[in-house]
Specification:
Blueprint lengths: L27 H9 L5 E4 L9 H13 L3 E4 L22 H29 L15 H11 L11
Parallel strand pairs: 1-2
Length: about 160
């Protein structure tokens, strides 16, 4: 928040055990945030995927922000380029429908990429490398290799010329 020039912010951060699958409007801290804000406030979010994980939920959040006349600023991903204010296409606001849909699709792509990378990093932290699992367990590869070499016919010897 310091980098964004926001001095003394009031922070609402979900507990680690709050499921990311829970709709944002059902999350306790988001509810507290909405109760705290006043007309014309700006809600700052560090990363969009921290709040929503689908386009439908983005639109639900926009509806609530518009209802409460709140501006929204997202500081990472595809959304910083968007002029996200309390108005949006469903209500004839500032963003045109075409522009909004194009930017939402770009943001959804960026969101999906971020979620994929997060999943890969989490799997790597657990010791998973990703990719296909080997067909033969690591402790069995030497046995399989030896058996293969014994069963394979020997290559023909080169013909000798006199």
């Amino acid at each position: 928040m310091d980098e964004a020039g926001i001095g003394d912010p009031v922070v609402f951060e979900e507990d680690g055990d709050t499921s990311s699958r829970l709709h944002p409007l059902q999350r306790p801290k988001f509810g507290e945030l909405l109760a705290y804000t006043r007309l014309g406030d700006t809600v700052h979010i560090t990363e969009m995927f921290r709040l929503v994980r689908s386009t439908g939920r983005i639109l639900d959040v926009f509806d609530v922000l518009h209802r409460d006349r709140l501006a929204l600023r997202i500081h990472d991903g595809a959304f910083p380029a968007m002029a996200l204010t309390a108005r949006h296409p469903r209500t004839g606001g500032l963003l045109s429908t075409v522009r909004f849909m194009v930017q939402t699709l770009a943001a959804a792509r960026d969101l999906q990429r971020e979620l994929t990378y997060d999943g890969l990093r989490a799997a790597e932290a657990k010791g998973n490398k990703g990719g296909r699992r080997p067909a033969v367990a690591a402790d069995k590869t030497d046995d399989v290799r030896t058996a293969y070499r014994k069963a394979a016919p020997s290559p023909p010897s080169p013909a000798t010329t006199a």
